[in-house]
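In this supplementary section we document a worked example of the pipeline. Step one takes a protein sequence of length 205 as its only input; no multiple sequence alignment statistics are reported here. Step two produces a three-dimensional model, which step three serialises into structure tokens for compact storage. The input and output of this example are shown verbatim.
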Amino acid sequence: MKKLNMKVVCVVALFALSLPVVYAQSFLTDGLVANYPFDGNAIDASGNGNNGTIHGGVVPTIDRFGYPNSAYLFNGVDGYIDIGNPVGNSPTYLTECAWVKIISRETTGYGFNDVIITKRQDPSGTLPVFWATLFFSPSGNGVLSCEGGFHETDCTGTTQTPTNVWVFLCGVVSNGTYQIYVNGVLENTTTDGTPLNSTHNMYLM
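The serialised model returned by step three reads:
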């Protein structure tokens, strides 16, 4: 589990498809499988029923607009939200987005120090599997993991985001192509042909 890397998360959205969309998308909800505005609870606002279950050190706090009870503070030790399996085990197309403010982060080592969204492994620390985990590196770069074991082909952004600043982080998987967006700007694109494959639940951390 993470240590001493506290964060505030106020909105999380997940999009997933097993087949490409061949028509022009005209609505934000096309492909939306889960949406967590965190307005006092971890209920899925998409209407798909993928409600979250809060565990450990997760408490309500103010969001990026200053509204109370509109975000969650994760304590960086044992706090996480289990949202079940809203995207399935092997999506070909996946988008993971979140508004995040890192309060403190670990600055040594590399890996999932500031995880936002993952199905790579569960909180008990089971062996990792191949999944596109959205997280921040120790230096504050947004990362979409493209490798199950050693991160050789991770899709890493170029911006070193500071602590105590709200950041919109978005990772996109499209049939083996990985993209990382920071505050709406595409910062990197990589490829990895290994299919996503995880039977774990998805966790917000």
